Amino acid sequence: xxxxxxxxxxxxxxxxxxxxxxxxxxxxxxxxxxxxxxxxxxxxxxxxxxxxxxxxxxxxxxxxxxxxxxxxxxxxxxxxxxxxxxxxxxxxxxxxxxxxxxxxxxxxxxxxxxxxxxxxxxxxxxxxxxxxxxxxxxxxxxxxxxxxxxxxxxxxxxxxxxxxxxxxxxxxxxxxxxxxxxxxxxxxxxxxxxxxxxxxxxxxxxxxxxxxxxxxxxxxxxxxxxxxxxxxxxxxxxxxxxxxxxxxxxxxxxxxxxxxxxxxxxxxxxxxxxxxxxxxxxxxxxxxxxxxxxxxxxxxxxxxxxxxxxxxxxxxxxxxxxxxxxxxxxxxxxxxxxxxxxxxxxxxxxxxxxxxxxxxxxxxxxxxxxxxxxxxxx
Length: 378
Hints:
The protein is α/β, with parallel strands linked by helices. It contains 17 helices and nine strands.
């Protein structure tokens, strides 16, 4: 993401065929979730296109609509659902002046998930030890699907939530495993305690200091390989170098609503916080089946949510790294007492700053003359 990207997270269902203990969606939410109908899916996507059209005609603020089709597990709607609807949606997006990237975020356990994944511009999946696969057979299915998609040249990315088991396993072990599997784009996501993750906090929520050390270890692994393998990107390691070198907000850390984001539930309800959508009683900013995406994004509640996200948290005022993290995730701040390592992972930022300003490291995009490849969110 960048400051000219709007992130749409379209949850076609919250239901899932897994029950990961670190998941930001509660099992109760999954159990009662509906599935988007054909009409609801097309209506939602067309409204996103309408928003981008209006932006092009007025503000011209956004150059990219980054649309994640997600859940729950989006493949549970079936292959035929996407065969019917994606051609219609893609035809509409082809008329949008800005770039539109249509991605799917899937656990890639079932064969249908791999088949559906091939229909999208990008594919993201996830891997965590202990908290994701309750049975070895499920992990074997995931491995086989990943290997096949990578062998077939599918643009497959992997996200790992930095949980306690991941921290205990170690950055080197994790990254060696993913790299040997064939992944070239790895995103290490900061664990957000919500949904089932909140219930299992004691087992999955690492201390901020532990996460910072893990990120530094991951960076050291990555820096040994980043120029030998020009296709390899590990974020937020590379994207933090980009951020510090350019003195700009770090989009892998900041709340995505600051640049622009909207979480759309399968019921049509909306939220600015992507993680809070996993709660049964999450308050909605408006329903896109009853109004529209444009009306929600222009509403007072949404504008107020954005203003709150942009406003620095009290503990952060005066911090010399505020311009990089912008107080980071508001949810994480609820679990910080203002002492020690912070939810913006200042120690990690300082480590990268030393690499850039003292040791002379430069962004890979600058060295290779390529576009910026950031971590995004999955």
